[in-house]
């Protein structure tokens, strides 16, 4: 048992050496690490609570997605039946309780209508599941109900697009190493380290950035508009900056040009040195814009962002060059933000911040310093205590703990795990518990010596008997750690990762590695008495 | 060099004889802890109740009353203030605006920041968290679930690994540890947040570690001394493992003590919970779980059967001729 073959020694030392080596880059400055070969760049990432930064959890409303889809469906049905050939007249179209229903004027056309709608309800996937169910009720009404699978697919694709849009927006802000991840079915986690102004980020992500240009309905009666009523074909929209004082305005429903036709958006200034956003349309968007503005010279058009009117300037002359200005009481910052939002496209669904955690860089640095000091003091205190309690064996345990700390950092680096503040606590706790295995072994050796066993037999027994106990005790400890990792979020997870890695490495270093050290000493010195 | 021995050789404390008293004390403390938790309640952080938490760092010591009046003028809802760590840091908690989503909570933070900067030049907002009611509800759920699953999972493990008596005694002892920790937080009114759930889970992990070591020794001794009286046997096992229990508790308390004193204010509640847990866990290993085994009627026969099945190899080696061989 105290004999280790050359291979065994190699097998014990090699992983420890690799693990410890992988910890080195963590202590080097970033610039030095960048020059190392790729496989050596195994740094432990610092969590936001240590590096400073913002963690945002954004949530999309599934109901919104479902509602939007129904609105789209209504539009599609109208186009398909009213404008298709042969024309099918419909009426009483309404979407209520998440269903779309309408009446076919001529009952003999009901079957034909269903046939025409069918292709619209087909899912895009290969599963053959329908996105909508179509039913005929009372022989002349058709009810279209979205299926769960259809809503699920729609939410899924909306979230994919949203994640992409968010990525573009954050990249445009020029922050480094953001993490953007979908969580669950309708949430997105955004983590941006070292961010100075999380407010700007939240404002940016909170914008859907759906831009539309519509003509102002000048025929509408202002009194009725104020009460929220608009003429047929128009709608009343909020207009917070209305110079006339009324917070609402009536605009035509028909969209002249929308944000989808944009190719670029930049922040600029108008002749009065007011911040504006310059936008550029693609070919077809430019043509449409030119056409509508030519026909409506001297009438106002509304610039609408996310359902709110930003401004309603007059069309002084046809705008033909394919570019336009968006004005509306901007500051330089807010104009820049809108430009970024427009460039990165509109979010398919509105997102709300349901959780935010922001840590200032100063506090993060304080925490690291405090954690480091605490770790060093903990290591020294435990080391001294082990030495006065077990002498030479205590030193072996201390060497094992030191290597253990390095290996944990190395493993974290290899796994790309993140070190958080509770992670540091996990670290300190691991230092405390790592010696537990050695304590178990050494106490066992003491016992065996008291019972009169000789030195070698005591050591052998100590290691063998204690190993089983160590295993049992650590399996249960790992159960707790595993549950934390599986269920925990943020800080709990960071703690669990360190704990689990620590359990695995400390068992190995405490049991196997110290046995190697003890065995070498016993073989070379053949002690007649051990001081333990 | 004379080595330090915290527990003298051949210590023999009659733990089992004290168990009636210990049970009474444990029961009393548990009732007090549960009572305090129900009566005073826990000082839940924004993680669990939702809301807005701002940590403000002032250049010098401030009176919380002045901060309170500054915020009261803003009309952003009822604030609750707490000096946090040092007298220069104040934690401000505000309710989340009911409507308006991200923009609204932004506005509250901005409003508070501006007012505070005007009133206290040089103040910095070192941290702020906002958690919506929906998310906080989920965090409570997963937190409770995590602790329950951990306790049950560990109890099941020790039931399968040993006997059902061990499973139950372990379960009871861990529940005791968890309740004590809750009681501690109710009495001290330290903030109870997600980090504390991690601390509680760690306590569970540590406490079980301790119990496994003693349980393992009990089982081993049951095989070794088949005729021994159960009470004496448990006393023997607890005493034999006592040096280890004390040593390990000491090293962990040393490490946690360093963290408590030097680890920064953010981790203070977390560390305090774990230190308490180590003490409570050690107590419950000795007085609750081990003593409970007797009341549950642990029989050597049951242990024997299971042990024979599981560690046959170990037994064979134990009685082998290696005992006296001085093979290097």
Q: Kindly report the average pLDDT value of chain A.
A: 84
Number of alpha- plus pi-helical segments of chain B: 11
- Distance linking N and C termini of chain A: 20 Å
- Succession of helices and strands of chain B: HEHEHEEHEHHEHHHHH
CATH class bucket of the largest domain in chain B? Mainly Alpha
Rg over alpha carbons of chain A: 34 Å
Question: What does this protein look like?
Answer:
The complex is a heterodimer of chains A (532) and B (328). Helices cover 53% and strands 20% of the residues of chain A. Chain A has 532 residues and is α+β, with helices and mostly antiparallel strands. Chain A folds into three domains: 6-51 and 360-525, Multidrug efflux transporter AcrB transmembrane fold, CATH 1.20.1640.10; 62-152, Alpha-Beta Plaits (2-Layer Sandwich), CATH 3.30.70; 209-346, Gyrase A, domain 2. In chain A, the strands form six sheets. In chain A, strands 7-8-2-18 form a four-stranded antiparallel β-sheet. In chain A, helix 4 packs across helix 6, helix 11 packs antiparallel against helix 12 and helix 13 runs antiparallel to helix 14. The longest helix of chain A has 35 residues, at 491-525. The mean pLDDT of chain A is 84. Chain B has eleven helices and six strands. Chain B has helices at 19-40, 46-49, 64-72, 101-119, 133-161, 164-188, 194-224, 230-262, 268-295, 300-310, 312-318, and strands spanning 43-44, 51-57, 80-84, 86-94, 124-131, 191-192. The radius of gyration of chain B is 26 Å and the shape is elongated. Classes of the chains: A alpha+beta (532), B alpha+beta (328). At the A-B interface, helix 7, strand 18, helix 11, helix 13 and helix 14 of A face helix 4, strand 5, helix 5, helix 7 and helix 8 of B. Strand 18 (351-359) of chain A pairs antiparallel with strand 5 of chain B, so a sheet runs across the interface. Chain A: Belongs to the SecD/SecF family. SecD subfamily. Chain A: It is found in: Cell membrane. Chain A: One of its GO terms (biological process) is protein targeting. Chain A: This is Protein translocase subunit SecD.
């Amino acid at each position: 048992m105290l004999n280790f073959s050359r291979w065994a020694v190699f097998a014990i030392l090699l992983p420890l050496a690799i693990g410890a080596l992988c910890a080195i880059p963590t202590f080097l400055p970033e610039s030095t690490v960048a020059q190392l070969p790729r496989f050596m760049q195994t740094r432990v990432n610092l969590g936001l609570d240590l590096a400073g930064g913002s963690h945002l959890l954004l949530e999309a409303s599934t109901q919104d997605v479902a509602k939007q889809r129904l609105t789209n469906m209504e539009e599609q049905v109208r186009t398909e039946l009213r404008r298709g050939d042969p024309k099918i007249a419909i009426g009483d179209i309404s979407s209520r309780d998440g269903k779309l229903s309408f009446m076919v004027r001529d009952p003999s056309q009901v079957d034909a209508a269903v046939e025409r709608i069918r292709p619209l309800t087909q899912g895009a996937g290969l599963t053959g599941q329908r996105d909508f169910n179509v039913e005929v009720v009372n022989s002349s009404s058709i009810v279209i109900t979205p299926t769960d699978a259809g809503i699920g697919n729609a939410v899924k694709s909306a979230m994919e697009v949203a994640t992409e849009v968010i990525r573009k927006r954050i990249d445009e802000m020029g922050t480094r190493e953001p993490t953007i991840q979908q969580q669950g079915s309708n949430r997105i986690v955004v983590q941006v380290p070292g961010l100075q102004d999380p407010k700007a980020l939240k404002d940016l992500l909170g914008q859907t950035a759906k831009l539309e240009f519509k003509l102002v309905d000048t025929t509408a009666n202002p009194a009725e508009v104020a009460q929220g009523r608009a003429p047929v074909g128009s709608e009343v929209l909020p207009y917070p900056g209305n110079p006339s004082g009324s917070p609402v305005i009536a605009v035509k429903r028909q969209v002249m040009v929308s944000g989808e036709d944009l190719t670029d958006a930049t922040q600029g200034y108008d002749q009065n040195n007011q911040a504006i956003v310059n936008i550029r349309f693609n070919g077809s968007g430019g043509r449409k814009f030119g056409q509508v503005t030519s026909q409506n010279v001297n009438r106002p058009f509304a610039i609408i962002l996310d359902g709110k009117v930003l401004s309603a300037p007059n069309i002084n002359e046809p705008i033909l060059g394919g570019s336009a200005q968006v004005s509306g009481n901007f500051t330089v910052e807010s104009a820049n933000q809108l430009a970024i939002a427009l460039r990165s496209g509109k979010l398919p669904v509105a997102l709300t911040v349901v959780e935010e955690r922001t840590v200032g860089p100063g506090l993060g640095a304080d925490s690291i310093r405090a954690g480091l000091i605490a770790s060093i003091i903990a290591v020294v205190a435990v080391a001294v205590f082990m030495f006065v309690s077990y002498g030479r064996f205590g030193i072996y345990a201390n060497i094992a703990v030191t290597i253990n700390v390095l290996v944990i950092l190395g493993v974290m680096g290899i796994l790309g795990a993140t070190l958080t503040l509770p992670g540091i606590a996990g670290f300190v706790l691991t230092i405390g518990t790592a010696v537990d295995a050695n304590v178990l072994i050494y106490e066992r050796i003491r016992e065996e010596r008291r019972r009169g066993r000789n030195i070698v037999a005591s050591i052998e027994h100590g290691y063998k008997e204690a190993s089983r106990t160590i295993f049992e005790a650590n399996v249960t400890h790992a159960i707790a750690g595993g549950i934390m990792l599986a269920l925990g979020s943020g800080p709990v997870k960071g703690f669990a990762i360190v704990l689990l890695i620590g359990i695995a490495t400390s068992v190995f270093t405490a049991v196997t590695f110290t046995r190697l050290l003890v065995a070498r000493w016993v073989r070379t010195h053949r002690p007649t008495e051990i001081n333990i | 060099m004379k080595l330090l021995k915290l527990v003298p050789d051949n210590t023999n404390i009659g733990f089992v004889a004290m168990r009636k008293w210990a049970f009474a004390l444990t029961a009393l403390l548990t009732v007090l802890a549960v009572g305090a938790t129900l009566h005073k309640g826990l000082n839940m952080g924004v993680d669990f109740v939702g809301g807005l938490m701002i940590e403000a760092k002032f250049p010098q010591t401030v009176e919380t009353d002045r901060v309170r009046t500054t915020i009261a003028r803003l009309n952003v809802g009822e604030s609750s203030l707490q000096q946090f760590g040092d007298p220069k840091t104040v934690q401000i908690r505000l309710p989340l605006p009911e409507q308006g989503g991200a923009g609204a909570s932004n506005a509250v933070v901005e409003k508070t920041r501006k007012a505070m900067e005007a009133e206290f030049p040089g103040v910095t907002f070192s941290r702020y968290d906002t958690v919506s009611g929906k998310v906080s509800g989920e965090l409570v759920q997963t937190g409770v679930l995590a602790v329950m699953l951990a306790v049950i999972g560990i109890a099941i493990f020790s039931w399968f690994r040993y006997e059902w008596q061990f499973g139950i005694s372990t379960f009871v002892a861990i529940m005791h540890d968890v309740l004590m920790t809750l009681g501690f937080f109710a009495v001290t009114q330290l903030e109870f947040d997600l980090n504390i759930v991690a601390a509680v889970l760690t306590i569970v992990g540590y406490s079980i570690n301790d119990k496994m070591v003693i349980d393992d020794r009990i089982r081993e001794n049951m095989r070794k001394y088949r005729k021994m009286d159960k009470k004496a046997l448990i006393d023997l096992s607890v005493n034999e493992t006592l040096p280890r229990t004390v040593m390990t508790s000491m090293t962990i308390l040393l490490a946690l003590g360093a963290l408590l004193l030097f680890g920064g204010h953010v981790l203070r509640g977390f560390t305090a919970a774990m230190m308490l847990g180590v003490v409570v866990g050690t107590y419950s290993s000795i007085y609750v779980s081990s003593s409970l085994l007797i009341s549950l009627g642990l029989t050597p026969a049951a242990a024997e059967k299971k042990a024979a099945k599981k560690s046959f190899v170990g037994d064979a080696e134990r009685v082998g001729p290696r005992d006296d061989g001085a093979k290097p």
